[in-house]
Amino acid sequence: MTRKRILVSGGAGFIGSHLCEKLLKEGNEVLCLDNFFTGDKSNVVHLLNDPYFELIRHDVTEPFLAEVDQIYNLACPASPVHYQYNAIKTIKTSVMGAIHMLGLAKRVHARILQASTSEIYGNPTIHPQEESYWGNVNPIGIRSCYDEGKRCAETLFMDYHRQHRVDIKIVRIFNTYGPRMHPQDGRVVSNFIVQALRGEDITIYGDGTQTRSFQYVDDLIDGMVKMMASENFIGPVNIGNPHEFTMLQLAEKVIELTDSKSNIKFMPLPMDDPKQRQPNIELAKQELGWTPKVQLEEGLRNTIDYFTKVI
Ligand code: NAD
Ligand code: UDP
């Protein structure tokens, strides 16, 4: 195969680091771009000795120039705690980051994939969510810096495609978990596991009846790479695991698998927290021949092993 030069923005984050690893394993050259806001060098330190891996400190709200064949645009904090910390910076990252990465793709004729999100569906009124659904997003709420930023990024991707024929791909990623999530990431899977391992109370926001469908990171990476390789399909495509759980079920599962003595503590539900979420993945099956392979218990075991070592 021919070695491709691939840029991964947000490459030192949770998902980005797994992607860099996979792309290197497949024989490519990887430029990992990150401002280390939520990512960390430690996520990619094991790749630094690879002569085909380059780590570059850069903020995607500034333009970046390089000769590359492909771009994966992942730069953006993904946990509500982190993306709300500096909301204006979050929306700038999504919108200006998309403009800069699309500008680069246009200039060097690179194929570019956007890491979009199930959050673009907001608090969905149809269930499960399919790609044709336009969503139910509060444009002025505390989640909108992320949701609307990602929606605008999708618009920019489509417009660069229509106006400049840029070779784009859009994947809508549903809740993904796995090793290398930051222990203080704030998202539910890492929170529950860290709390259970430390014997602290498990914090359920609201009454725990809200649902999410959790995907293990290896399945996501497989889907993203398949999407990048597809010739004519641009998406958007949902990439997620359709098995849906309530947060109460997740808490009970984590307690069981960690053999923890933790108690469950109910806390206020954050504003605009989506009530339910489940991907319809028929399009990914059809167009990419992709289905998730790792079910929750196996994925949680791997993630628990990881956190047992790092905390
Ligand atoms: P993460 O926070 O671990 O990774 C984001 C990375 O982007 C970090 O390394 C961070 O330092 C970097 N970054 C943030 N702002 C930047 C900027 N201005 N310039 C350069 N780098 C910047 O989160 P993640 O879970 O790995 O998410 C990666 C991508 O996938 C994000 O775009 C996120 O929106 C998307 N996504 C993730 C999920 C999920 O469940 N994990 C779901 C849907 C979409
Ligand atoms: N959540 C929770 N306890 C936590 C963290 C999150 O009950 O310690 C809930 C949160 O309110 C939401 C769900 O878990 O209903 C998923 O939250 P997360 O931040 O992981 O992802 P998102 O809401 O962006 O899907």
TrEMBL record:
GO terms for biological process: D-xylose metabolic process; UDP-D-xylose biosynthetic process. It is found in: Cytoplasm; Golgi apparatus, Golgi stack membrane. Its cofactor is NAD(+). Its EC number is 4.1.1.35. This is UDP-glucuronate decarboxylase. One of its GO terms (molecular function) is NAD+ binding. The keyword Transferase does not apply. Pathway: Nucleotide-sugar biosynthesis; UDP-alpha-D-xylose biosynthesis; UDP-alpha-D-xylose from UDP-alpha-D-glucuronate: step 1/1. Keywords: Cytoplasm, Decarboxylase, Golgi apparatus, Lyase, Membrane, NAD, Signal-anchor, Transmembrane, Transmembrane helix. Its main location: cytoplasm. One of its GO terms (cellular component) is cytoplasm. PANTHER family: UDP-GLUCURONIC ACID DECARBOXYLASE 1 (PTHR43078:SF6), UDP-GLUCURONIC ACID DECARBOXYLASE-RELATED (PTHR43078). InterPro entries: NAD(P)-bd_dom, NAD(P)-bd_dom_sf, UXS-like. It comes from the Bacteria. It is a single-pass type II membrane protein. The keyword Transmembrane applies. Residues 7-303 form the NAD(P)-binding domain. Belongs to the NAD(P)-dependent epimerase/dehydratase family. UDP-glucuronic acid decarboxylase subfamily.
